[in-house]
Request: fold
Amino acid sequence: MRTTRYGALAMAAAAALTLSACGGGGGEGEGGGAEGGEAAADSIRIGIKFDQPGLGFDEGGSYSGFDVDVAKYVAGELGYTEDQIEWVEAPSANRENLLSNEQVDMIFATYSITDTRKETVDFAGPYFVAGQDLLVPTDSDITGPEDLNGRNLCSVTGSTSAQRVKDEFAEDVNLIEQPGYAECVSLMGGGQIDAVTTDDIILAGLAAQEANQGQFKVVGNPFSEENYGVGLTKGSELCSDINAAIEKMIEDGAWEEALAANLEGVDYEPNAELNPPTPAECA
Amino acid sequence: MDGFLSLFEQYDVAGAFWINIQLTFWAAIWSLLLGTLLALFRISPIASLQWFGATYVNIFRNTPLTIIIAFGVLALFGQLFVSLSEDFNLNFFRLAILGLSLYHAAFVCEAIRSGVNTVPLGQAEAARAIGLSFLPAARLIILPQAFRGAIAPLGNVLIALTKNSTVAAAGSVAESAGLMKTMIEFRSDMVIPIFFTFALGFVIIVIPIGLLTTWASKKLAVAR
Reply:
């Protein structure tokens, strides 16, 4: 009898732990996206990065960055106030899943439009054209990827931007991969890394962070073209409205304002020939 | 299906798993050596050594592996300029082995100590009675029996180590977890097949280890 009682107690404890684990995981991973399902009519769920200063950054409950500002403007044009926006974290590897499982309505998360991705999701935009570039210490003599032979170059795990530099520009570059750009920048602050590479606007956002102000510069010699689009569920009807909103944002100057406000204090100009871009036709 | 097979032409999946196996191999050797030493400390009659062994185990057993690996790169390499090799990539490989070994040594130590507990007290007393001091007694009488009793828990540690070798991705080692991230980033149309490929890869590596250690623990068990 006694053992049965202990057994039952253990079962109850295990069940409670399992349940609480589920609850915690859901809340954290989806950022309240789950509850959004019921209230979809009067709110919109937008996926952004939470860890990219200057683009999509979680400042303890409020969000800042260029992606966030564009998302707010577009949502406003679609008829949603800021209170009706539910922000959901959209890490790079998760973006397609979030869209195809309809956990978010749109994604503004440095999301380059590519043909492979178009097979699983739809894109509106582009709303910005970035290019791969280098972030270097302010006193560095590096002016382009060709100067990297024999130097140490940092990038994040799961991106091939560093590999591209090795394959196309500097055969003898040393590559180091880190879980995030913050780690790369801290290594560069320590002096063991000569350059960090990814899209120029991401680098500018890192350089604009208060802790890094004045220490790093974007080289300004972009060597690729990344069209940042708005990720949408396949077959979404929002595309043309979003494109109209982006066009309006560029026309009335809010686009430029948002860019300037988020990258204040950094010596960085987005590629002027390609920016601001004209949204492509909706599929 | 053609698309799925083209993944293997585009990315070196087997090569990435080979890195994991190498990491596991070296870390297993170093953590076995260090763990045995720590277990000796913990069963030794010297109080300060006992204290050191217990402190080491408690600290490393309770520190997340990711933090240990990140410490290797951000602190040892980034700030203290520690270099374990002239070769840039080999340096990170060795730093990762160092982190994996330090972490798993704590678990190896406890596995061996559990093996020591399977040795009857009379064995130690008999060793003492024929005039052996601590080290010879440990080397000739206690540890040989302890290892045979600890094969199953050591196998568990080895399995955990195999899978934990993916954490080396945080330390700039190009192994399978990093490759999986790259593949998901660029082949977003194949997320689920990619995921299962890597899961299956680990099943293929780990199941033989489990079977082998179960077999060996039965075969080599001390008959009492």
Observations:
- The mean pLDDT of chain B is 92.
- Residues 16-219 of chain B form a domain with the MetI-like fold fold (CATH 1.10.3720.10).
- Residues 50 and 60 of chain B are 16 Å apart (CA to CA).
- Chain B touches chain A at residues 70, 73-74, 77-79, 81, 88-89, 92, 169-170, 172, 174, 177-178, 181-182, 184-189, 191 (CB under 8 Å).
